[in-house]
Amino acid sequence: MERWQGKVAMVTGASSGIGAACAKALVCAGFVVVGLARRQERITQLQQEIPTRFRSNLHAFKCDITQEDKVREAFKWTLDRLGSGVDVLVNNAGIIATTELSANQNTDEIRSTIETNLLGTIFCTREAFNSMRERNVEGHVVIINSVAGLQVPNLGPDLPSLNVYPATKFALRAMNEIYRQEFQRHRTRVRITTISPGIVDTDILPTSIRTVVKEMLPSLKSEDVADAVLWAIGTPPNVQVHNITIKPMGEKF
Hints:
Elements: E1 8-12, H1 17-28, E2 32-37, H2 40-46, E3 58-62, H3 68-82, E4 88-91, H4 107-135, E5 139-144, H5 165-185, E6 190-197, H6 207-216, H7 222-234, E7 243-246
Parallel strand pairs: 1-2, 1-4, 2-3, 4-5, 5-6, 6-7
Helix pairs in contact: 1-7, 3-4, 4-5
Protein name: Dehydrogenase/reductase SDR family member 11
Family: Belongs to the short-chain dehydrogenases/reductases (SDR) family.
Transmembrane segments: 17-37
């Protein structure tokens, strides 16, 4: 990780769960981290969970990544405030619509899921990659995916439908390969990796559903995913880690 010391990392959805764990891990690994979230105050609170000597290296920026102009503003703020473009991007922000895909009046939930999971990732990756390319630097883009992007899990009648969530995750897997090809086409030193975890104990689900899931199924911790992110970006520059799949012991999917 020595080559990343003092470099700038951006993490989307950094206010809780996997995003918060990634922000903390990256700061403690020597990065200057910009955390994007709609709940900016929660990233500020996160600073108190970081060793004192690293706290000044975590910055919070309020951003709804579904808004293209806000994403551009976040990258401009990072360049103006820190004097550097983004070297590592962790696309983590994501949501799940928990109504049935075939239910009536669920358009807003479906649209929000697609816009957050797909368009938000596209907007952020585009800004990060072009910054890396223009500066001709080594860079790494990480997409937090899901095992639901490898196989649609059948949760059974006692758990909610995953709605359009797996479809967005399958799309992210395809995008990962498209980005890999494009980054090579432009002869850059930018790598792309997806991390596909099984069920993770986060607040992405409503509390009532989350409680049921925890009782019925084993789960990972957010820190387990953050460890995978650190490993991927810590591999030698000539290594292309395409996808990492991690599951909790005992997962049946």
